[in-house]
Structure formats: structure tokens, C-alpha cells
Amino acid sequence: MVIAPYRTDMSETAVDKIFRALMERIVTGDLPAGEKLRQDHIARDYEVSHVPVREAFLRLEAKGLAKSVPHKGMRVTELEPTEIREVIEMRVALEVLALTHALPRHDDQTLAEVDAARIACDAARDMITWDRSNRRFHFALLMPCGMPRLLSSIEDLHITAARHLFAYWRDRWVSRPDSDHAALLEAVRAQDLTLACDILRRHLRRVS
Amino acid sequence: MVIAPYRTDMSETAVDKIFRALMERIVTGDLPAGEKLRQDHIARDYEVSHVPVREAFLRLEAKGLAKSVPHKGMRVTELEPTEIREVIEMRVALEVLALTHALPRHDDQTLAEVDAARIACDAARDMITWDRSNRRFHFALLMPCGMPRLLSSIEDLHITAARHLFAYWRDRWVSRPDSDHAALLEAVRAQDLTLACDILRRHLRRVS
């Protein structure tokens, strides 16, 4: 299971690397809806055979980011405007569940990581850096729940939510400190579960 | 998107058919953890080429039911005992969300389908029939929410939950009328959202 979004580490395989690079390009809109993913070009760019590229394509398909179209090859999927409301409500349901299990298990180390991600988020000067830091903030907050399947589902929702955010905000994005993040961290530090869940719900419904 | 569990209809492709047959055999324990899935045998049994079998394997992998093991081929995954607690809590979170959106949209036709599934469930004399009817009951109840991504996630959780149920109850299963199902349908008929959600939460935590 992938536990941190956009992770890069020494154990990454060629498939992981190609999948993450393509995912990031689709999420940010660099590869737009309908675009053809060319197996031979990508294999050449990464100096690999077709096998890991094909495998990376299937992972993109499983995440709903690409789709094999008969006679047209692998294409970037369209953005579904109705999907974002579903994704927000599913994030609220699952992230509140994860936070409920995570909050009693936060220690100085995890709180320091949440705070570092919060500061990185506020300091971001472009949307790609902000998005990565924002996902790092939310994951650092929820990771202590220790529920891998739940965290994996939340990560999938983050990917779709980020794609919608980039599609609609990329041209209008402005750097700003996030007061919800600060309030959320404060409630977690105080071990106030009710308040923390209320802030998280409001935050996800507002910014997503 | 697959909207009804174990659906069979005219539009099913060879891949769908092979995927569903293998899924059902893994879920019910007929294909146990660690078992090798033999591409050539399955292709021969279904009178197809290796291509749709390979595709069905990848779908099983995406659902966590099979895994490609280096030098050992495709194998049925092990059951993770800790997974069931996660699956129950995720079902509670997502099914309560779906029910909240579905309840105001229930009409005579959807209520009749929920009731028919409830009766089929109570009448089941073996665990496989009961499991299918039980999933049909839960899906009929939630389908009117009209949220395809949410329903698809719930279906994945049902598949894993059913696999655990079969593993632990297959030898001890007994036919019995389900009073939770009756109470849930009554609360939905009365459009009592709070009561319906309370019963659903209790039911999922009890029977799963």
C-alpha cells in the first residue's frame, strides 16, 4: 500500500516511477482529458521495455485516470463534474473515521510532522507545491489511525479531488495561510475530537 | 460501474463473466488463499484466448483478491484478519452516507425491491443464496442515492466482507429471519433517517 502521496524512495520500481510521473501530469492537467498515452514514447523516455509502461497504464486505469478506448489506445479520462460532490462527501465520511482513530495516537513526533506540512503549505508559492504539502498535511494527520485500507481509499479520493482542484483553480490559485489547518492542528493538540472533526468537515466542504 | 453485486446480463463480456466466476469462487472459499490461478486451464474452461483471462486476473488484483507472485504466477491472496474491523467501520461510514442520500428518494418501486430482497434473504437455505440476497438487500436500499463512485466503493467493501464471512461462518451458518432488515425497511418506509441510520450502524457492526 502507498501510505504517503507522491512518495519517492529508494525502493520504487520502474512501474511505480512511471505511474507516479503520469499520475502527477494527469492530476495537474499537464496531460489533459482525452490525451493519448503513447506506450512507445513513454518506454523510450524512461529507457524501459513496454512491460512496466503497460503495468503503469493499468494502475492509472484502476485509479480512473486513464481508460483503454477500442481502436484509440489508452486515453486520459474526462473529468466528471458531478464526481467532485461525491468525492467531497466520501472524504468527509472516511477522513472523520480516520481522524477518530488517529487522534488518540498522536504523539510529539506525528504532531511535529503535521505542523511542518502545515508550514510548507502556507509557504507554497505555486499550486503544485501547495497541493503536495496539503496532501502531506492531511496524511500526516490521519496516518496514526494505522488502518491501511482506509488510508489507501482516502489517497484515491485525494487524487481525484486534486485533479478537480487543478482543473478549476490552476489559473486562479493564490498563496495564502490556511486558518483551518492551524485550527485543526490546535484541536488535535488539545485532543478535542469533536472540535477537530467539525473543523475537518467544514474544511473539506469548503476548500475541495 | 458495476451497480449490482454478482450481476449477470446480456451485455456481460467474457472478461466480466470470468472475473465474476473467479471472484465468487474466491469469496466463498472454493478457491482458498494461496491457490494458483492457472491462465491456461481457465482459458480452456471458458473457451477463450489468454487475453480476457489475463484482464480478469488484473481486475481480481485490483480488488485485492489475487496477487501476482514473482516466479509463482497469480495466487489467491491471504485473508488479513485485521482487515475485517477496517472494512466494517468503512462500511458504516459510507453506507450511512449513501442511505442519507438514498432515503428521500425511495419510492414504491425501490421499496418493493428492498422488501423482495429481504424476503429472499430470510428464505435462503444455504449461505451462498443468503449472501447474494443480503447484498441485493443492501444495494437496493442504497442504490437510489445515485452516487456511482460511492456505490462502487461500497461494493468493493461488500466483496471483502463476504470473503471474511464465508471463511469464518461457512460451517456454522444457519438460516434465520433477520429482524434488523425488517426494522431497517420499516424506518425507511417511515422516512425516519435517524432511526434508519442507527439500525444500519448496529446491523453492520453485528453481522459483519
Structure description:
- The structure is a homodimer of 208-residue chains.
- The first copy, chain A, has 9 helices and 2 strands; from the N terminus they run H-H-H-E-E-H-H-H-H-H-H.
- Helices cover 64% and strands 4% of the residues of chain A.
- In chain A, strand 1 and strand 2 (73-76) form a beta hairpin.
- Chain A folds into 2 domains: 14-76, Winged helix-like DNA-binding domain superfamily/Winged helix DNA-binding domain (Arc Repressor Mutant, subunit A, Orthogonal Bundle), CATH 1.10.10.10; 83-207, Up-down Bundle (Four Helix Bundle (Hemerythrin (Met), subunit A)), CATH 1.20.120.530.
- In chain A, strands 1-2 form a two-stranded antiparallel ribbon.
- The A-B interface holds A 58, 62, 83, 86-87, 89-90, 92-94, 96-97, 147-150, 153 and B 58, 62, 83, 86-87, 89-90, 93-94, 96-97, 147-150, 153.
Short synopsis of the structure:
Chain A is mainly α and 208 residues long. Chain A contains 9 helices and 2 strands, in the order H-H-H-E-E-H-H-H-H-H-H. In chain A, a hairpin with a 3-residue loop joins strand 1 and strand 2.
